[in-house]
Amino acid sequence: xIIKPKIRSNFFANAHPIGCREFVKQxxxxxxxxxxxxxxxxxxxxxxxxxxxLASRIALAYGxxxxxxxxxxxxxxxKNRTGTAGWWNNxxxxxFAKETxxxxxxxxxxxxxxxxxxxxxxxxxxxxxxxxxxxxxxASPVRINEITNELVRSQIKTLGxxxxxxxxxIAKKVLLPLTVEPATEQEVEDTVFVMGGxxxxxxxxxxxxxxxxxxxxxxxxxxxxxxxxTEKIYRKGTLGKAKQDLEDTAETLxxxxxxxxxxxxxxxxxxxxxxxxSVFIPQxxxxxxxxxxxxxxxxxxxxxxxxxxxxxxxxxxxxxxILDDAKRIRIDHKEMxxxxxxxxxxxxxxxxxxxxxxxxxxxxxxxxxxxxxxFDFDTVDYDQDVDIxxxxxxx
Length: 395
What we know:
The chain is of the alpha/beta class. It has a single domain, classed as 3-Layer(aba) Sandwich (Rossmann fold). It contains 14 helices and twelve strands. The strands form four sheets. The protein has a six-stranded parallel β-sheet, sandwiched between helices. Strands 1-2 form a two-stranded antiparallel ribbon. A hairpin with a 2-residue loop joins β1 (about 5-10) and β2. α1 crosses α3 (about 85-95) and α6 packs parallel to α8 (about 240-260). The longest helix is centred in the middle third of the chain and has 24 residues, at about 240-260. The model has no long low-confidence stretch (mean pLDDT about 95).
C-alpha cells in the first residue's frame, strides 16, 4: 500500500506506520541525549499514545528508567485502513523500549469505564505492586455515562458570544475563516463531564481502594493557559470550564494525597504545540506559528519531548519548580515571557497570508501537525509500498 495523507476538513483519515515509527524514535533519541534524573519507578499514564502523554511516557521511561503502563483507545489496521497513529505509536514504543529492560504494558480500551480500570489495576497489583506516579493526559472527545449508558460528547465552544478568526487549511496551505459558536448550558455540562477532573479522581480513588498507590505518590494532569489570542476558547469557553474543574480536582486530590500518602496532585500548564485539535480553534494555528517563529529566533523553542522532559526532571522531581498564584506548575514560562508574547502578538498583527506561510515557524508548526500522523519525515520514503499486515505482525 502506498500511503499518502488523506485530509478531510483538517482531519487526518489515515496514518503512515513508518512515519509513526520515526515519530517515536525521534523522541526516544531526544530523551537519550538528555541527562538521567531520579524519578518514579512505576508509572501509570492515562492517555499515553500520542501528544503530551506519549512524550511523558518516553521522558519517564528513558530519563528515570521507569516501568510504564499506558491506557489508550486506538484502532489497529483493518483491510485498506491504516489504523490510527496512536496504535502504531504504542506498538513501536513497546518494540523500542525493550532496550530499557524495564516493564512496559499497554491497555487498549475505554479509560473511562470501570471494567478497564479493574483490568489495569489487577495487572498493576500482580506485576508492579504499587504506582509512584499517575499521569492523566486523556484527550477523548466522548465519554460513556455508565449510569445512563449515554454517550456524552464534549464541545469546543465559547460562552456568551462567538469567537471569530482564522485557521490554516493544512491540506491546501491557505487561511480559512473560522467561527466558533457559543455553547448551550447542556454543552458546557457535557464538556466538563468528558474533559473535567471527575475521571482523574475516579482513577485515583480506585487505585487507592486496591492499595495500588505508593507512599509519596504523585499525580499530574495538563492544562493550557496561553494569552489573549485564544482566551475565548481556552480560559473563557467550554474548555476553560473543563480545565477549571480539572484544576479544582487537583486541589482536592492534593489535600487527600498529602494527608494519606505524603503525596501530591499537580497541574502543569503546557506550552502551545501542534495538536490534532489546534486547527479547530480560531487564531490558534496562526498564534502557534508566530510563537514558533519568535521562540526559535530567541533559542527558546522546545520540542514536545524536551518540554515534558524538563517538566519531570526539573519541576516534578527536581528543585526548579515554578508555580503561579493558583499553584499550577508553569512549565510554559518561556512562552509567556513578556518579550516573547509582545513579539508574537506584534508579528500576528503584521502578518498577512503570504508572509505567514513564508515564516519558518509556520513551516515547523505544519510539519509538526503532519508528523503527528506519521507524515513529512525526511527520513521516510512515502512512495514506498508498505505491507501493513506484515509490519503489524513484526512488532
